[in-house]
Structures are given as C-alpha cells and as structure tokens.
Amino acid sequence: MSRDYHKPTKFPSGMFEAFEGGMDPAESSRIAHETARALLSRVRADPDPGIIDRLIRFTDEHGIDTIAELWSHATSRSLPGSLWRIYLLRLLIRQDPHMCGVIFQRGTEELSTIDPVVAGAAAPTGPGEIIELADRILRGVFEGDFTIALERAAAYCRVSAAGATSIADDLESTEPQRATELTRRAVRYAQFARDLTSAARLWRLDSLD
Questions:
Q1: Other residues' Cβ atoms within 10 Å of the Cβ of residue 199
Q2: By the 8 A CB rule, do 123 and 108 touch?
Q3: Around Cβ 14, how many Cβ atoms within 10 Å?
C-alpha cells in the first residue's frame, strides 16, 4: 500500500464488492495475528474511553492503509481477519452513510428474521442511525462481549445483503449496471456475514486466533 497520502485514503466502494481475503506469506501472517492479539488484549484489559475513541476514529484520520497492511490478507475466520472486516464495514458506512442506510432499511423490510434486532440500528434507519451503529459495533470489539460485536456485525451484513439484493432486483430493467454492482455488494455482505458468524463461534470456543 502506498504511504504517500497526507489525508485519509478514500476507499472506493467497488473495492468492497471485489474484496477477497487472500493467502499471505508466513511472516506477514505472523505479524497480523500478533498485532491483532496484542491490540485486543491490551485495550480490553484496560478499556480507557479515550484510547477506544482514538481506535474507532483511526481510519477517519489516517485512512485504511495501515490496517490493510496489517490485517487485510489474514484468513477470513481469524482474529485479524475479523477486525479487518469490521473496520472495513465501518469505513464503507462512513463514506456513504445515505446508501448504506437505504440498503439496511430495505433489508429490515425484506427479512422476517431477528437479524435487524441483533444488529441494533434505530428504526427507521437513515445516515445518522447507520453511522451510530457502525461506531457501536466497533466499540463493542474493545469493550463488552467480543462475541456480541461479531454477531452484530454479522447480522448487519445479513440485513444489508437482503437489502442490496432487493434494490438490485428493482433496478434490473432500468439500471442494469447499478443492479450488478448491488448484487456484487450483496454477495460480499453475505460472505462477510458467514465469516463473522464463524468467528463468533470460534471466539466462544477460545479458538479464534
């Protein structure tokens, strides 16, 4: 990743749709796991509100590059892979809270599951509500029950996958390119939901590394 940026790096939403966790060299994998464990254990052992606030705002001030270098290639169902996904979801929300709110709200109308309740966004869900949800999910990583943070993120992804699919269906005949983009986003949301759900299960078993 380039280090030439002096402002937070914008993360095009298309990179989210195309994102795939990848295999990484052994040394990079070791660093990813060690930094994730060290960060989480240190902050959760002494959850200072000021430190947590800075961690939540990190990508707002510095961009996604540093976190991507550390964790983006970690396996999907690992501690660094899970942290990367939650940071990435929050960044996507903050860069386009209107569209993310629209997608989530549509998902709540499409689903008859408990997922909207688990995710915990205020209803109706607009830009302000979806930003607040993203911050609360990330804050939950560093304080409270980490399993709940993972499950809330997974629920958010399932609701958003349903919403993106529904909107894509509406646009299929009039805006096929946009419909395709939303379909890809729905697929990625669904994959993230599966990854985060598995990570929550592994964390309960003390097996998320």
A1: 27
A2: yes
A3: 11
Q: Residues, the chain, total?
A: 209
Please state, in angstroms and rounded to a whole number, the distance separating the CA atoms of residues 110 and 104.
10
**Which residue type occupies 187?**
V
- Look up the pTM and report it: 0.86
User: By C-alpha distance, which of 32, 99, 86, 90 is closest to 60?
Assistant: 90
Asked whether the beta carbons of 108 and 168 are under 8 A apart, the reply is no
Residue with tokens 């549509």: 106
Query: Is there a contact between 35 and 80 (Cβ–Cβ < 8 Å)?
Result: yes
For residue 52, give both structure tokens.
């947590």
- Rounded to whole angstroms, the Cα distance separating 60 from 64 reads 8
Question: Is the previous residue joined to 127 through a cis bond, with omega within 30 degrees of 0?
Answer: no
Give the integer Cα–Cα distance in Å for 125 and 4: 37
- Reported as a single tens digit per residue, the pLDDT across 148-202 is 999 999 999 999 999 999 999 999 999 999 999 999 999 999 999 999 999 999 9
The vertex-50 CA angle with 98 and 117, nearest 5°, equals 40
CA dist., res. 91 & res. 85, Å (int): 10
Q: What angle do CA 162, 22, 56 make, to 5 degrees?
A: 65
Q: What are phi and psi of 118, to 5 degrees?
A: -65, -45
Contact call for residues 113 and 162 (beta carbons, < 8 A): no
- Measured distance CA(158)–CA(189) in Å, rounded: 7
